[in-house]
């Protein structure tokens, strides 16, 4: 069914300003951490080839600006995303509280076919900081993730490279699943279905 | 006012005395007295068909006359004066009563007819002027006055709106709020020989055409300007709440709003100038001033005062240069006919001396010496009067500016150019971080020393900093590159930030001091980004550098709390701080945010969105192939360039250079990838394999600059500004929907309202806010009391305080006035109750919670609410006064219910309230210990003992529950008065609609009887002027059901195709009779007269259409022709029918009256 051609997975990273989106992406792609990133303006992306379930896929990871006002710029590149990564800082409770609105806004802007089952992954970043600074407990985060349809949850540190590889493996896997879904009219927002059964066979023509 | 009347004169009824015909067959006299006649137009009670005809004719000639009027009968020798008009009999009766009360006595004392007339005229004049202050109805021009009144009566709009101008056109629209307009296009009407129509697209993508405008371009410009203004307001409105830069409350800081405001009132940085009355003239001035400020980068406080052409020269210059000399409050500017040739902006405070040179006759020349000992010679081309006027204004303005001279010296000590020229050894310590941490790049390689030398030469002969004169060599030097030490100053000068810094001396320090240690949302955001700005530069690895950056960014966020801080500002600021002091950087940042990148960094970033649109527009025009490719593969250009905010021409050049490669891309990712690679390789040779050595040396950057300047030089600031103006309409509505989502999501508690209800509450809240405030003054996005009146009036019928209902019901105006006061009182109470934080303003959250409490409460909670509202001292008891107040509130809310039941209930309530407490008091003169076990009665007793009448909540409940009507009211009635209906459905209310509907109804009737029954119908209705039925029918129109109005909106939507061609418009009603002589397009173009009203206070606008279209005209023609046949025995009838059919347009307004008389 799914074509054997090279698969491109589009992953969008969202979350408040300063939670470590750029760092996570760079840690995963370049295995590096730096104190010298500039605040992200607009959007940027990196690609990485990974093996998922014995298949070579290219992940296109989009890093975004975290400041709320950048949202209104219209986020064209949300469209066609295969997975959305929500990041918050475990030492900052506001960044956790806004996850809801990040998720909502993503669903509105990206308008995926099946919003109920769109794959999200939540990352609680900066767990390398001292325990006393932590304000969002694992339990609280897990509860939220469960309430949103069992979103996979990881606690990470981009600085110490804790759990990053792991998290992105899951991200890639879920993204691939989304991509591979027999979503045959995915590219045509308003299909004119003449005959349901027939059209199923033309799927991969595109 | 010391006048004998017992009550205030009714508003909006009296007119400036206007001569009129007393004996006009179209008016029936209803009442008469010695000097006055109260008349009613026959149109109001004669048969509906006839009324339709008259109404139509009146509309055609813009002479719509309300059905009732009062005429002052002057002596037979002079003409009578119309002094009052009204739509309702009630209104005119009030006016009559007032006249009886206040004028009769005075008139009887006067004998001379002339004196009498004077007396009346003066009285009425002063009355009207007082009432209509601020509206156009006092305007001298009668047609403007009439239009303004008609406008106000036609559209149910806020009294702050003013009629700007009116244009006749063939319209087709319902009331249109300017802020909903999304796109304006000039269109060529299909039929016309000239482009004569305007297309208006609203946010719900309805299209409206206005054709047959005789001043299309003028109308377009005015509309454009007004829409822009309302957009600006809308954008400010859409700000995230609360303003991110507003300090969060901390105990060490007592908020003193007045003091804050004074800090925030800058000389020039208020983004939108205070709203001057946008009458047409004002709008023109406003536009001119804007262009002037923009051109010279002057503060927004400057207004263009004088302008003349002149020849300019200095001692060093060999020739005279022709150009334009302009003068504002604080600046004298010159720009050569060829702008690049020569220009200067001379602040008047740098002028030391002005002499008039009188060498030759008829030549008027000025010699100006400035602070830097330069002599500028200006030879003004023009006559003596012009020259004198210019000199006088210059002299006056110079006097005003003298006060600034005293800090000129200290200011100049912060300019590096002074040190450079005056005393090269003495180094000015003021400068950027580069002084300590070094400037980027290799100074030697950049030939910094050599450049400095060139600049010294230039500055010596052409003035410096505030007095610099720019000539072509200046631009050349800039392109060669600025020396590091001068860079900050030249930036400051070219952006105009230097003038701001001068005028607002000390403000930067004051901000630092006033807000030391304060925290806001923005300061928190800034804190996060300080280390993520320019980390590679050494200064920002130290505390010192970071502190500098922090101070500038936070100061700016305090200055403009609605913008606060936007990411990317940190990067810009960190870069400019290398070259200049904190204060300089602060003002450059201001100019950047306010003028150069307007809206870029605002909370909605509308400027950036706008730029995306404009950029796409350019790509589409200049590189259509590429544009099409992007469209095909669905790549949005905006994705890529945001991080590289460049000039449009550079961006276009980049696309052009990489065009071939870009044509192969298929998604966003590849697009960004191509561009990133290109940016990474900018310093590499563009043509490494070229044989020519010179060509090999050019880097990709050089190539980029070359392509940019060569190919896209047509893109100028002016064209960009123009595009911004036209595109902003589209942007605003996208943003609006985004902010709306965000705001609604941010509500912590939505009560139990559905999403839809919340959305409507949101719309009404912001709609009320939009019209409610002068946004430039506000520092607070909450709703104030006055706006709350309007808001509530929009949601609950009883809360409408300015509608007719308050005057329509029985009772004298005095009663109504009293009732209105009760209304205000009651709504005030609600306001205070809603305002949970007692902050004097309501947030959206407050409103939602407040309304929720009422709508989703139950019988008990609503009773408690009412009780608490009226318990003003919050002691848990209602006293006599409070009980009376409550009953008045009841009466106020019930005022629109016709039945006696409610009135009875209220009087019962009063009776019970007093009787109950009293009777309890009588039977239990001494408190009975047994009874007081049950709290309620116990309370009741003690109450009674102490104060005779006071009521507790439980007894209040008992009284209410004992009454069916009141119980029903609290159980459900009150809650259901709050209606959450889409605002669009309200729009089509108003007179225009009514008239149209009336005509439609008539048309239908007519079609039914087609052809013959005219003879019977007319006398019948004349003989039985059944006022009641005519009243009730007009009532029916005004209660236009939502469904009906929606249909008409739909209609206008459906007919957009044909809207250009008015002949097809009667699609909307197949019942209209086709025009018999439809080939006579002359008539149809010229005779359709309706009014496009561009309405004012910087915003809203309505297009009125009092009538529909050709269809109606045809009907009129038809009716008239039939009429003339029926009345064939009348003398002039044939003449009439010819007049009406052939050249209606040639008739003057006055002729209509005559014509009508003839009938």
Q: How far apart are the termini of chain A?
A: 13 Å
Helix content of chain A: 25-40%
Note the beta-strand portion of chain B. Answer: 5-15%
**Fourth CATH level, the homologous superfamily of chain A:** P-loop containing nucleotide triphosphate hydrolases
Q: How many domains of chain A, as an integer?
A: 1
Please give the radius of gyration of chain B in angstroms: 36 Å
| Low-confidence region ranges of chain A | 183-206
* Principal-axes shape call of chain A: globular
Would you give the CATH topology of the domain at 773-976 in chain B? Recoverin, domain 1
Which architecture of chain A per CATH?
A: 3-Layer(aba) Sandwich
Protein name (chain A): 15150_t:CDS:1
Keywords (chain A): GTP-binding, Lipoprotein, Nucleotide-binding, Prenylation
Organism (chain A): Funneliformis geosporum
GO molecular function, one term (chain A): GTPase activity
State the gist of this model.
The complex is a heterodimer of chains A (206) and B (1159). Chain A is α/β, with parallel strands linked by helices and 206 residues long.
Structure description:
- Chain B: Pfam families: GRAM, RabGAP-TBC.
- The complex is a heterodimer of chains A (206) and B (1159).
- Chain A is an alpha/beta fold and 206 residues long.
- Chain A has six helices and six strands; from the N terminus they run βαβββααβαβαα.
- Chain A has a single domain, classed as Rossmann fold (3-Layer(aba) Sandwich), CATH 3.40.50.
- Helix content of chain A is 28%, strand content 21%.
- In chain A, β2 (43-52) and β3 form a beta hairpin.
- In chain B, the strands form five sheets. Chain B has an eight-stranded antiparallel sheet.
- Among the domains of chain B are: 14-133, no CATH class; 305-409, PH-domain like (Roll), CATH 2.30.29.30; 413-596, putative rabgap domain of human tbc1 domain family member 14 like domains (Helicase, Ruva Protein, domain 3, Orthogonal Bundle); 606-644 and 646-730, Cyclin A, domain 1 (Orthogonal Bundle); 773-976, Orthogonal Bundle (Recoverin, domain 1), CATH 1.10.238.10.
- The interface between A and B is large, with 35 and 40 residues.
């Amino acid at each position: 069914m799914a074509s054997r051609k090279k698969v491109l997975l589009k992953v969008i990273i969202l979350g408040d300003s300063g939670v470590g989106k750029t760092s996570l992406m760079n840690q995963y792609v370049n295995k590096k951490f730096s104190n010298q990133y500039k605040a992200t303006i607009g959007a940027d992306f990196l690609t990485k080839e990974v093996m998922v379930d014995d298949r070579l896929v290219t992940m296109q990871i989009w890093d975004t600006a975290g400041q709320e006002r950048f949202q209104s710029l219209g986020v064209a590149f949300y469209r066609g995303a295969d997975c959305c990564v929500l990041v918050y800082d475990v030492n900052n409770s506001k960044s956790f509280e806004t996850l809801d609105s990040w998720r909502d806004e993503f669903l509105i802007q990206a308008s995926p076919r099946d919003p109920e089952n769109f794959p999200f992954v939540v990352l609680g970043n900066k767990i390398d900081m001292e325990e006393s600074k932590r304000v969002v407990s694992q339990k609280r985060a897990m509860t939220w993730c469960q309430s949103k349809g069992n979103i996979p949850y990881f606690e990470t540190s981009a600085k110490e490279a804790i759990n990053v590889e792991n998290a992105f493996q899951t991200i890639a896997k879920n993204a691939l699943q989304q991509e591979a879904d027999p979503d045959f009219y995915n590219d045509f927002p308003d299909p004119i279905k003449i005959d349901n059964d027939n059209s199923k066979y033309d799927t991969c023509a595109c | 006012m010391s006048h004998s009347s017992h009550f205030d004169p009714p508003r909006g009824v009296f007119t400036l005395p206007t001569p009129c015909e007393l004996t006009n067959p179209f008016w029936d006299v209803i009442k008469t007295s010695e000097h006055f006649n109260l008349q009613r137009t026959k149109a109001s009670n004669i048969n509906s068909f006839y009324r339709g005809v008259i109404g139509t004719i009146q509309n055609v000639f813009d002479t719509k006359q309300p059905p009732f009027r009062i005429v002052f009968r002057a002596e037979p020798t002079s003409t009578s004066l119309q002094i009052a008009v009204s739509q309702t009999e009630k209104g005119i009766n009030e006016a009559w009563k007032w006249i009886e009360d206040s004028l009769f006595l005075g008139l009887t004392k006067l004998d001379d007819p002339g004196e009498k007339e004077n007396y009346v005229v003066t009285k009425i004049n002063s009355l009207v002027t007082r009432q209509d202050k601020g509206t156009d109805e006092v305007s001298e021009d009668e047609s403007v006055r009439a239009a303004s009144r008609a406008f106000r009566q036609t559209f149910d709009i806020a009294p702050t709106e003013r009629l700007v101008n009116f244009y006749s056109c063939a319209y087709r629209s319902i009331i249109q709020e300017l802020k909903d307009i999304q796109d304006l296009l000039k269109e060529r009407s299909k039929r016309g020989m000239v482009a004569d129509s305007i297309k208006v697209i609203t946010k719900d993508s309805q299209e409206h055409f206005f054709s047959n405008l005789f001043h299309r371009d003028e109308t377009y410009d005015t509309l454009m300007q007004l829409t822009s203004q309302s957009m600006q307001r809308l954008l400010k409105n859409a700000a995230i709440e609360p303003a991110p830069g507003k300090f969060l409350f901390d105990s060490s800081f007592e908020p003193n709003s007045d003091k804050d405001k004074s800090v925030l009132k800058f000389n020039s940085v208020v983004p939108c100038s205070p709203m001057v009355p946008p009458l047409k003239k004002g709008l023109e001035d406003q536009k001119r001033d804007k262009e002037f400020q923009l051109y010279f980068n002057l503060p927004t406080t400057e207004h263009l005062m004088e302008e003349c052409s002149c020849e300019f020269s200095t001692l060093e210059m060999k020739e005279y240069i022709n150009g334009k000399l302009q003068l504002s409050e604080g600046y004298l500017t010159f720009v050569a006919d060829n702008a690049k040739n020569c220009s200067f902006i001379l602040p008047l405070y740098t002028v030391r001396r002005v002499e008039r040179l009188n060498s030759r006759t008829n030549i008027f020349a000025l010699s100006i010496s400035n602070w830097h000992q330069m002599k500028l010679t200006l030879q003004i081309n023009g006559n003596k009067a012009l020259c004198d006027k210019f000199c006088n204004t210059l002299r006056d303005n110079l006097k005003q500016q003298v006060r600034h001279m005293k800090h000129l010296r200290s200011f100049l000590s912060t300019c590096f150019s002074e040190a450079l020229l005056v005393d090269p050894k003495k180094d000015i310590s003021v400068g950027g971080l580069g002084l300590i941490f070094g400037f980027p790049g290799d100074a030697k390689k950049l030939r910094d020393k050599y450049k400095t030398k060139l600049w010294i030469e230039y500055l010596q002969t052409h003035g410096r900093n505030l007095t610099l004169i720019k000539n072509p060599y200046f631009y050349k030097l800039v392109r060669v590159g600025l020396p590091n030490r001068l860079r900050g100053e030249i930036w400051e000068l070219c952006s105009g930030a230097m003038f701001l810094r001068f005028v607002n001396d000390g403000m930067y320090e004051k901000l630092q001091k006033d807000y030391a240690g304060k925290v806001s949302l923005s300061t928190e955001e800034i804190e996060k980004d300080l280390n993520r700005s320019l980390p590679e530069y050494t200064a920002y690895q130290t505390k010192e550098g970071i502190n500098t950056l922090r101070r500038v960014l936070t100061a700016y966020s305090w200055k403009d709390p609605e913008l606060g801080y936007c990411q990317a500002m940190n990067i810009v600021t960190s870069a400019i701080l290398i070259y200049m002091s904190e204060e300089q950087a602060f003002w450059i940042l201001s100019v950047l945010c306010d003028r150069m990148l307007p809206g870029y960094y605002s909370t909605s970033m509308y400027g950036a969105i706008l730029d995306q649109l404009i950029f796409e527009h350019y790509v589409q025009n200049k590189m259509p192939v590429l544009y099409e490719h992007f469209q095909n593969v669905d790549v949005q250009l905006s994705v890529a360039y945001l991080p590289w905010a460049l000039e449009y021409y550079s961006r276009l050049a980049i696309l052009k250079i990489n065009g071939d490669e870009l044509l192969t891309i298929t998604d966003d990712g590849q697009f960004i990838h191509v561009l990133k690679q290109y940016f990474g390789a900018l310093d590499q040779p563009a043509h490494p394999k070229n044989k020519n050595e010179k060509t090999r040396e050019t880097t990709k950057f050089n190539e980029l600059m070359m392509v940019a300047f060569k190919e896209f030089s047509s893109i100028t600031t002016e064209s960009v500004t123009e595009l911004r103006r036209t595109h902003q309409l589209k942007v605003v509505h996208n943003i609006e929907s985004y902010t709306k989502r965000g705001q609604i999501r941010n509500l912590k508690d939505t009560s139990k309202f559905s999403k839809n209800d919340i959305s409507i509450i949101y719309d009404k809240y912001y709609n009320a806010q939009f019209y409610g405030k002068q946004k430039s003054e506000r520092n607070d996005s909450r709703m104030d009391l006055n706006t709350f009146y309007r808001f509530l009036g929009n949601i609950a019928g009883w809360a409408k305080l300015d509608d007719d209902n308050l005057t329509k019901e029985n009772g004298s105006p005095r009663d109504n006035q009293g009732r209105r006061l009760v209304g205000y009182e009651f709504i005030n109470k609600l306001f205070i109750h809603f305002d949970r934080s007692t902050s004097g303003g309501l947030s959206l959250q407050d409103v939602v919670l407040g309304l929720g409490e009422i709508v989703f409460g139950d019988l008990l909670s609503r009773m408690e609410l009412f009780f608490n509202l009226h318990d003003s001292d919050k002691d848990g008891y209602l006293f006599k006064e409070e009980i009376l107040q409550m009953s008045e509130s009841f009466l106020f809310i019930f005022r629109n219910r016709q039945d006696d039941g409610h009135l009875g209930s209220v009087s019962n309530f009063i009776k019970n309230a007093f009787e109950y407490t009293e009777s309890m008091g009588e039977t239990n003169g001494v408190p009975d210990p047994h009874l007081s076990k049950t709290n309620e009665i116990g309370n009741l007793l003690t109450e009674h003992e102490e104060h005779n009448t006071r009521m507790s909540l439980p007894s209040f409940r008992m009284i209410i529950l004992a009454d069916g009507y009141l119980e029903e009211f609290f159980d459900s009635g009150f809650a259901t008065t709050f209606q959450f209906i889409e605002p669009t459905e309200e729009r089509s209310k108003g007179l225009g609609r009514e008239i149209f509907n009336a005509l439609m109804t008539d048309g239908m009737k007519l079609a039914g009887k087609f052809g013959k029954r005219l003879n019977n119908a007319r006398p019948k209705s004349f003989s039985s002027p059944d006022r009641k039925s005519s009243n009730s029918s007009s009532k029916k129109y005004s209660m236009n059901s939502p469904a009906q109005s929606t249909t008409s909106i739909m209609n206008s939507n459906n007919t957009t195709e044909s809207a250009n061609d008015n002949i097809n418009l009667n699609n909307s009603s197949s019942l209209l009779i086709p025009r018999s002589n439809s080939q006579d397009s002359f008539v149809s173009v010229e005779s359709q007269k309706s009014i496009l009203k561009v309405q004012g206070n910087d915003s809203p606008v309505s297009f009125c259409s009092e009538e529909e279209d050709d269809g109606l005209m045809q009907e009129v023609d038809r009716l008239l022709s039939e009429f003339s046949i029926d009345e064939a025995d009348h003398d002039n009838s044939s003449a009439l029918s010819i007049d009406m059919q052939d050249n209606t347009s040639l008739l003057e307004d006055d002729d209509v009256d005559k014509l009508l008389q003839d009938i």
